[in-house]
Fold:
Amino acid sequence: MATYLVTGAAGFIGGAVAKRLVHQGHEVVTIDNFSTGFREAVPEGVHCIEGGCQDADSIRQLDKWSFDAVFHIAGQSSGEISFDNPVYDLQTNTQSTLLLLKHAVATGCRKFLYASTMSVYGDQPDKPVGEDAVALPKSFYGVGKIASEHYLRMYHEHYGIDCAALRLFNVYGPGQNMQNLRQGMVSIYLAQAINNRHILVKGSPDRFRDFVYIDDVVDAFLSFLPVSAGYKFYNVATGVKTTVGMLLEEIRKAVPFQTTLEFASGTPGDQFGITGDISAIALATGWQPKTHLDRGLHTMIQWALQHE
Ligand SMILES: NC(=O)c1ccc[n+]([C@@H]2O[C@H](COP(=O)([O-])OP(=O)(O)OC[C@H]3O[C@@H](n4cnc5c(N)ncnc54)[C@H](O)[C@@H]3O)[C@@H](O)[C@H]2O)c1
Structure:
């Protein structure tokens, strides 16, 4: 049995990672400030500390454990929201990473896995983007995430800790926050379809994304546990292009009622379209996504309808 820190386990991705690790018999600790997560969503069996990862006093509460690995997943996850308060975005996404790296090194932890994002890339040509592309973020959120990646690199180079940044593309699936209508493309459209029978789409239906299912994302994080990454960043995607129009059509077909659509102008920092090349992670850990969008969407929609 190992002991892991999974930050943000009251949220969508952190909760799913923590749940899997508990299920495998490991001891799991989380720290969450419940800014977007829900106390009741912290998986059973997880030791939960309430606090902000950007706050040194909160991090000190972790001193009583010795972690085999840190999964730093907590953070605000919206490019749009990062424009409201770029300083908060920097604190929650970057200062938090720095403090947790410092804590990990000081306490002898040898592995640090980080939830980065495809937002670091900014606009790219219409073909799956590889990790060697020049990253030019369009949002404060993307800037903070790429800065965090550099802190991982620095900590690896200076203190030898094994670090991987997982550049997650659009993650979706059961457990996604259906109350925050500014974060998560699938959840935003689905929540509106269910609650209002009307979907307001901010931006063009021709925009496109690469949707990756939550269970595959959990597999991707865990695939690094037996692997020595040194320091590197990896796309976690499927390589499959889906336009916003196609996604809306799938959602509207799958819900058991009629919905209407309305289009408005886009949000600041929104990338027009992006898909990810996943050869690097496949080579490093053998990870491959297993869930096709139609199956993943079906599962998510059933879950959302039951939790209406
Ligand atoms: N969902 C996606 O499609 C996606 C894509 C790329 C990257 N990511 C990254 O994955 C991570 C998790 O995203 P999510 O979709 O699960 O979001 P989420 O909002 O569901 O979960 C985030 C969790 O972190 C907590 N949190 C936020 N800031 C915190 C802080 N400073 N200290 C302690 N706890 C804090 C929240 O309360 C919440 O429980 C984020 O870092 C996000 O940037 C998500």
User: Anything to note?
Assistant: The chain has a mean pLDDT of 96. The chain has two domains: 3-173+211-238+276-291, 185-207+241-272+299-306. The longest strand covers residues 111-117. Residues 7-8, 10-14, 31-37, 52-54, 73-77, 92, 96, 115, 117, 168, 170-171, 177, 184 surround nicotinamide-adenine-dinucleotide (CB under 6 Å).
